Amino acid sequence: MMISVDKATQIVISNSQYFGEEVIPFLKSTQRVLKEPITADRDFPPFDRVSMDGIAISYNAFKKGQRAFEIEGIQAAGSTQISMTNSAHCIEVMTGAILPKNTDTVIRYEDISIQNNTATVLIANVNKCQNVHSKGKDGKKHTQLVAPNTIISAAEIGVLATVGKVLVKVAKQPKVMVISTGDELVSVADSPLKHQIRRSNVFTIVSLLERIKIPVETAHIKDDKLLLKEAVKNYLKQYDVLLFSGAVSKGKFDFLPEILEELGVEKKFHRVAQRPGKPFWFGVSDSNKHPNNNNNTVVFGFPGNPVSTFVNCLVYFYPWYYKSLGLELKEETAILAKDVTFKPTLTYFLQVTLTSKFGHLVATPIDGNGSGDLVSLVHANAFIELPANKVEFKSGEVFKIFRYR
Questions:
Q1: 383 CB neighbour count, 10 Å cutoff
Q2: For residue 121, what are the β-bridge partners?
Q3: Chain mean position to CA 124
C-alpha cells in the first residue's frame, strides 16, 4: 500500500535519533551543529579601535575652528596605547590600532594633507567619534555571540577564533554505510560489458552526505540473497544508518525487504505515492527486540534509478538528519516558470533550474528522460514538489523546492 509524501516525511522525521555530542578542534567544525553557547570572553572590540588609516584628533579642537594639527607621534596596530599631550595636536593612526588617549575622532589620510609634520584637514565636515569602532559595540563580555544549534560556517569560525575557543562542542555525526546492490554494476575504474554499468548512485549519495559533513563508508553486494543477508546482518550491528540503492522494487532479485524483515528491521512503509522514487522502503531495527543488533539502526532503502535515489536523499534523509541533530530545515519555495501537466495521482518531484528575477526565486523545468537519466541532474539545481491533488500546474504558482546546488 502506498502512502503520501507528507505521511512518509512525518514517519521518517518521527524516527530521528540523537547521536550525542563530541568536542573537536574549531577548524574542523565547519558545517557541524554547535551544541554549546559561544560567549564573549571580553568586550568586542576590546578597545576603542581605529577603523581607518589617518590622524586621531580631539573633536573639540576641530569644532572650535582648528584645521591644522601638529603630529605628535604614530599609533601602530598592535602597539601599546600612547597619549596625546596637547589637545591641539594629532597622532597618526593605523587601521586596527587602539585609539590614543585624549583623542576621540579619526580623519582619513584621503581627507588631509601633510607637510612639515603638520596635518591640514581638507574637508568641511567632521563628525565626533567618526572612524572609531567603540569598545564593546559588537558584544559585551559574557554576552552570547553564537547560539547553540547553529550550523557552523566561516562566520562562526571567525568568532570561535576571536574568543579563543580552540575546542568546540558539536553534535556527533551518525555512522553511515551506503550500500549498492546488483550484478549489473561494476567498479568506476572498470570497462563495463554491454550488459553492465558502472556504480554511480552510491557515490552520488556519498557526495550528498559529504556536503553536510557526514563521513560515509560504502559497500557493494551481488544479487545473492545469502550474501546480502549476512552482510546486512553485520552492518546492522555496526552502523547507525544504512542507505541502500536498489533491491527494493518488485524484481525477482530485489531481496532487500524480505531480508530486512527476517533480520528484525521493522518496516515503517514501503512505496510512496511519488515520482520518481515510488518503491522507497524505510524501517528501523529495534535493539531491544532483537539482541543480535547493537543499534537502533535506521534503514533507508532507495530505488536503484539514479534520479530516484537523488531526490529521496534530499526529501527524506536530509530532514531526518537535521531533526536528529536538533534542527528544523527551513522550507523554500519558488515560482513555477511555465505550465506543467502531470496526470498520475502522485506527488511529482520535477527537476528545475532556479534563477532570481526581480527579487523572486523562479523555477524553470528542464527536459529529462525519466528517473534513469543521471545526466539530467547536471542541467538542473533543484527539484520542485508538485502536489498530488491536481493535474494542471500553472506558471506563476508557488511550490516547495529542494536545492542541491
A1: 24
A2: 112
A3: 48
Whether omega before 45 lies within 30 degrees of 0, making that bond cis, reads: yes
Q: Where are the beta strands (DSSP E) in 235-381?
A: 241-245, 265-270, 274-275, 281-285, 298-302, 332-336, 340-341, 347-357, 360-365
Give one DSSP letter per residue of 127-142, joined into a string: -TTTTEE-TTSSB-TT
Distance from C-alpha of 172 to C-alpha of 23, rounded to nearest angstrom:
9
Count Cβ atoms within 10 A of the Cβ of residue 67 and give its class: 0-12 exposed, 13-18 middle, 19 or more buried.
middle
- Grid cell, residue 143, equals 554576552
Strands (E), 67-135: 68-75, 89-93, 105-108, 112-115, 118-121, 132-133
Q: What are phi and psi of 49, to 5 degrees?
A: -105, 130
Condensed to tens digits (0 to 9), the pLDDT of residues 110-157 reads 999 999 999 999 999 999 999 999 999 988 999 999 999 999 999 999
Place of cell 536523499: 313
DSSP 13-37: HHT-----EEEEEGGG-TTSBB-S-
CA-to-CA separations, 137 to 45, 47, 108, 143, 330, in angstroms, rounded = 7, 10, 21, 12, 31
| Cβ atoms of residues 364 and 353 within 8 Å | yes
Distance CA 9, CA 176 (A): 20
Using DSSP, state whether 365 is helix, strand or coil. strand
pTM for the structure as a whole? 0.82
- Ranges in the chain, pLDDT < 70: 182-190, 192-193, 195-200, 247, 249-254, 287-295, 369-374
- Domains observed in the chain: 5-19+173-324 (3.40.980.10), 21-44+137-171 (3.90.105.10), 49-133 (2.170.190.11), 332-403 (2.40.340.10)
Q: How far apart are the first and last CA of the chain?
A: 33
Helix (H, G, I), strand (E, B) or coil at 235: helix
Single-letter residue type at 266: E
**CA-to-CA distance for 382 and 349, rounded, in angstroms?**
9
Cell numbers found for residue 378 = 547536471
d(CA 278, CA 84): 76
C-alpha cell of residue 8: 512518509
